[in-house]
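We emphasize that the prediction below concerns an isolated chain of 114 residues; any contacts that depend on oligomerization or on bound cofactors are therefore not represented. The input was used exactly as deposited, without trimming of termini.
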Amino acid sequence: LYQSALGMQRMMKFLALERRILSRPDCEYGTGASSDEIETATLNLGLPITGGYKKFLERFGWLECPYVSIYGLGEGVPRHLELTTLTESERTEMRPNLRQDLIPISNDGSGNHY
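Result of the prediction step, given as a token string:
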């Protein structure tokens, strides 16, 4: 029963996020990433993509708003938001290197990742 209630609570939070995104005319987003695209990214990054971020990828793929961008996958993802490319770059080219057990999903504008 607890797991069912927790799952329902997470779904409600995602639906609220979805409504906020869809209500913003100043945001751009994709049409969602396919299961194959998510699985390929999982294999390339060496880490599972799960939970709310996976649900976001499935629904939107990527997001770009005036004050926040979320890296993603799927058709039409701008190069500067492509998850796999950015993660590999952060792991190998940037200093300090991003740890191999992390996947960045957004940048705060000062080089720090969420």
